[in-house]
């Protein structure tokens, strides 16, 4: 399998120093007593925000001895680069624009709360970065109205670099519940690599499981990680999907181990009682649990699909949370596992992503056992009622065999199916998702 070229552009090690003379000016909100933040913009990419730590003006040690703290990350495909280059009057050069503010983030009566301190533009020559890393800036920049006066100007520190981040790209040829083929995309070439088989695992009759799953091992894991008892009220249960390679051998599977149940007195799956999936991989002649996905329906101005994905270690250690966020149920979005920067563009460095569920204190102890670093995968998801053919990107560094890629494909399928599993129970599901036609409504 040949990967597609991608570039990972990172902004890190932010800091701000303001000379003592500037502190006396009452018109300036000083960051030693008020927070400071910045807005980071790359053309054609969503705006990202990050906190900026204040460094005392007499501190000469920064950044020595300080860990590299990520503030923002941009992922650029070859098509993204082509669009950037086409719109730039310079050959292969674009600009990263950073606006630095003092004061709190947010708006009051439609007016931004922060006070603009200054702006920074870093030129980016991205040509060739698909194959080699490049540092565009690492150090201090004078900002503000007195930027030309080095002694009295505020100083802003940042590190901007680009590095190759090749990925395998897969595309479902149909909705997961329709048992589609999965193609690998490389440039303009589409090559079939997997087939998906959607089926119902009859919870009331254990003998009617999908023939693709080794029955004894599957029963053991399903009973360990999920509840198979009949539950009163509205529920969706028994869905499973198996990923096969082109020879027909199963290389990954996912099964709904906790039914998606409507909360008492409502027609929605709540955060307090989520449904869950178990993603399985073959190993040593049996199926082994690899990850667990929980999903529910969030309340708010617009409903969202809340999710939490955790890695299941080979040991008896607690599950390691790799992703936890919300997708718009109306517009869809991207399910992302990125162990550098979260989906909002803010750094996760303060609390390790690779930590056992419910206990960040032990995260650093488990970190050596977590094989995932940086960008891991992303999967596109369409909103409710829309035809969804998920596109999946997986970092090359996390794929050593066919089973690795298949596990991520199975995970992408469960995220997409969770959109349907979390639909209001007053709404109809398509017939492929209903084992009993009486459950269509």
Low-pLDDT residue intervals, each spanning 5 or more residues:
203-216, 228-232, 342-369, 437-441
Order of helices and strands: EHEEEHEEEEEEEEEHEEEEEEEEEEHEEH
Biggest sheet, strands in spatial order? 22-24-25-11-12-13-15-16-18-19-20-21-23
Q: What's the count of strands? A: 25
Largest sheet: 13 strands, antiparallel
Q: What is the share of helical residues? A: 10-25%
Overall mean confidence score, pLDDT: 81
Strand content is 35-45%
Query: How many helical elements?
Result: 5
Distance between the termini: 43 Å
- Kindly name the structural category: mainly beta
The gross shape turns out to be globular
Count of domains: 2
Radius of gyration: 24 Å
What does this protein look like?
With 441 residues, this protein is mainly beta. The chain has two domains: 7-20 and 33-58 and 67-86 and 93-164, Immunoglobulin-like (Sandwich); 167-202 and 235-342 and 371-433, no CATH class. It has five helices and 25 strands. It has helices at residues 20-23, 78-86, 215-225, 363-366, 402-421; strands at 6-17, 36-42, 48-51, 70-77, 93-102, 107-108, 111-112, 115-125, 134-143, 154-164, 167-172, 181-186, 189-200, 235-236, 239-245, 250-258, 260-261, 275-283, 286-298, 304-311, 320-328, 333-338, 355-356, 375-381, 391-395. The strands form five sheets. It has a 13-stranded antiparallel sheet. The longest helix is centred in the C-terminal third of the chain and has 20 residues, at 402-421. The protein starts with 5 loop residues before the first strand and ends in a 20-residue tail after the last helix. 38% of the residues are buried.
